[in-house]
Design goal:
Low-confidence stretches: none
Largest sheet: 4 strands, antiparallel
Order of helices and strands: HEEHEEEEEEEEEEEHHEH
Strand content: 25-35%
Shape: globular
Distance between the termini: 55 Å
Radius of gyration: 24 Å
Mean pLDDT: 91
Number of helices: 5
Length: 315
């Protein structure tokens, strides 16, 4: 049930692209009223074993403009997920605060709910937040013991090619649906945004930049595509299935004027930085450039400036 008392079982019982959206919209994108969804586990759920709540959904995020507005006004700040259970006195208590949120597009969050139900306490859970989180599916499961029947193989890319592609069309949706790209259809290839000025990575083979987490990276611009190929692996042993996980390490920076240094690619990020407040000077003075200057002679030779976008706006 949602916090208005509506039975929403049919909405969240299966992952089918129908999202729970009964909380409505707030004054700002990404933040709405305080709300929750309550899940009642079966009375005979085996709570003496490890339990998990598995919720799949998506977050409509705030942006830099909204965050500035929230910091300067009297609006209640954004709050991530918290998990509540009955307190045995007719009310509720927060059992798991600060659970974050399903970041970005469709994500699954795995919440350990083991040991939350003392004898005599109803097996009920509330997921509470004031963010625009749209749940597609909420299920519970017992956590099975590790049988040891799993293997992990980490694969390095066999090739990595950087090239320009353009922008995929977004599938039609309403405000409760995430914008999902249709990779088979391009919506355009011309200048679309005010690009950040500076050196991006030239097109072609960029594999040497992606072999380790070492502050050597591919600097992509809007509309670029990075294609990776991996060596085919033999089939898994009989009775087992294989999952694939793509692991990436990097940073993203947009051109919103309330983002730090929104008009330039520098200052360059690195793993030693604790914040992003040092103003850019010259590229040659940037710490990342000084450590990997050869990369700017070999790879980062494509100079980007916003002139093409400005020219496109002219009659």
């Amino acid at each position: 049930t949602d916090d208005t008392g509506q039975d929403v079982t049919d909405i969240v019982k299966t992952r089918d692209g129908h999202y729970l959206a009964s909380f409505g919209f707030g004054q700002y994108q990404g933040v709405t009223r305080d709300h929750y969804v309550q899940v009642d586990l079966p009375a005979d759920a085996p709570t003496d074993r490890p339990l998990a709540l598995i919720a799949t959904g998506w977050l409509h995020p705030t942006d830099s403009n909204v965050n500035i507005a929230l910091s300067q006004g009297q609006h209640e700040p954004p709050r991530g997920l918290s998990l509540e259970v009955p307190n045995g006195k007719g009310g509720w208590r927060t059992a798991r605060p600060g659970l974050g949120f399903p970041e970005g597009k469709i994500k699954t969050v795995f919440l350990d709910i083991s040991g939350l139900f003392p004898p005599g306490i109803p097996h009920q859970i509330r997921l509470r937040t004031n963010l625009e989180i749209y749940w597609d599916s909420i299920v519970w499961a017992n956590i099975l013991p590790d049988t040891g029947m799993h293997m992990e193989t980490r694969l390095a890319p066999a090739s990595a090619d950087l090239h320009f592609r353009g922008w995929s069309e977004l599938k039609p949706s309403d405000a409760t649906q995430p914008d999902m790209p249709d990779y088979g259809r391009l919506s355009g290839t011309g200048p679309r945004w005010l690009d950040l000025e500076g050196y991006c990575t030239r097109f072609g083979d960029v594999l040497p930049l992606l072999t380790a987490i070492d502050d050597r990276y591919v600097i992509m611009n809007s509309g670029d595509e990075l294609s990776l190929r991996f060596k085919e692996q033999p089939a898994p042993p009989a009775g087992l299935i294989r999952d694939y996980v793509l692991i990436g390490d990097g940073w993203v920076k947009d051109g919103n004027f309330n983002t730090a240094f929104p008009t330039t690619i520098i200052p360059l990020p690195d793993h030693a930085m604790h914040d992003y407040v040092t103003p850019p000077t010259e590229l040659e003075n940037d710490p990342v450039y000084r450590r990997h200057a050869d990369d700017w002679r070999t790879y980062h030779t494509r100079y980007i400036h916003p002139g093409a976008f400005i020219d496109a706006l002219k009659p």
